[in-house]
Amino acid sequence: MDSTILFVVSSLLALSLPLQVEPAKATNPQITVMGVVYCDICSNNTFSRHSYFLAGAEVRIDCMFKAISPRTTEQISFSVNRTTNKYGVYKLEIPSVDGIECAREKAMESSCRASLMWSSSSSCNVPGFRTTSDEIAVKSEQANLCIYSLSALNYRPSKRDITLCEN
């Protein structure tokens, strides 16, 4: 994705976050995993001016978080399905886990993967980017907040509209 598209996606993700972050206890982090799903009208795996975010798409999220601390050997693994909101954003908020401090440098190993399950649009339902584990992690020690933003997933129409997508 080019920098303009990444900025637009990041802005939309930020809109879906609460405006205020309430301080958490130092040992009880708030962990959020999120990403977007869009319709790739031109079937070229990029967000073009004809692309749009898909509301109501179903995404499966698989994550593993493991504390790297002398105090604990906690590990959390889970799989959940989430539906995108009107901006094409899916989000999972993980409850606080005592003993895991996500915002500290090297305090936690994590891996998350998102996979397309089904599209909400009959006109844009052919999977493009089906699975992603690429993430950008944003951590705030002050609020002990960690956000894992996964790369965008997309669907395509079954037929490419040549009039819209000519170079």
Automatic annotation (TrEMBL):
> Keywords assigned by UniProt?
Signal
Q: Which Pfam families match?
A: Pollen_Ole_e_1
- May I ask which residue range the UniProt record assigns to the signal sequence? 1-26
Protein name from the UniProt record: Pollen Ole e 1 allergen and extensin family protein
This protein's species is Davidia involucrata (Dove tree)
